[in-house]
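JOB MANIFEST
job_type = single_chain_structure
chain_count = 1
residues = 336
[input]
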Amino acid sequence: MPSNETGVTRPGRVRPRRLRRSPALRDLVAETTLAAEQLIMPHFVASKAQHDKPIPSMPGISELGLDDLLRVVEADLKLGICSVLLFGHPELGGKTADGRAAAAANGAVQQAVARLKQHFADALVVMTDVCLCAYTDHGHCGVLDDAGRVVNDASLAPLVAAALSHAEAGADVVAPSDMMDGRVGAIRDALDAAGYDEVILMAYAVKYASAYYGPFRDAADSTPSAGDRKSYQMDCRNVREALREIELDTVEGADLLMVKPALPYLDVIRAVREASSLPLAAYNVSGEYSAVKAAAAQGWLDEPSVVRENLLSIRRAGADQIITYHARDALREGWL
């Protein structure tokens, strides 16, 4: 601290607090911002017209029928949410060992895509999750061999078929989440060969085998019947491996990259951001969402403040887009 002529210390000329004095000043010098256009709202869809089934482990989130989805998305568009990510699963009895229902033209996701694009056209970016886990009778993201192991190359064909069916329905973005090696290149080649060269491919490039997916697996009915996904999803101890994954997916034709989950992997988001110039999304997953909801319900934390802090931390780490179940509440209630 500087001293005056008498040697008595006095407050310094540099005072960072000056720029924190009022909300307007804090907004003026804010380094990180978050806009509605950067938020992607996930939806669980059913092939029924009228269907609104609350998901107990995800308060405020429901599996929606096609008519209900249109109504909800229309309201969300007025809030500024202009991107959605769709998940589905087959009707009762539709699960098979190879997950072929994922590519059904009359599947819930395919019908939802067609309806959304028909009603909202280019005002809405429609993204689809491409995976087999919700469509296989064993709950894994690929097909199994006789020993119960997920077989990488044999899993590519049904994944490609699912992606093509989404593109045929009108999806703007297909997003493979299975973590099979080579699936980005296989899907890109198939899309281009079929004339869907303008369909965007968002790779779940860095997807960890995480305990934070529990509520999602309840919603999507995708819990493995045996074993786990650690042989194909990433180890939470690794970050250099993430950089290898994004390099491979970029070479194979990914247009956007994703890190999933978000909050436990902010360091990974930062590392990926520094290593790649591609747009980068982060998935604020179901367990992160439900943990906040549960604590808020007990009065243990202030939900608006925590959601704002969480989402801004993801942006600050380097994510350009955030997939989050909090999107609607955050915008409708003015939490941002």
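[summary]
The CA atoms of residues 160 and 203 lie 13 Å apart.
Residues 34-332 form a domain with the TIM Barrel fold (CATH 3.20.20.70).
exit_status = 0
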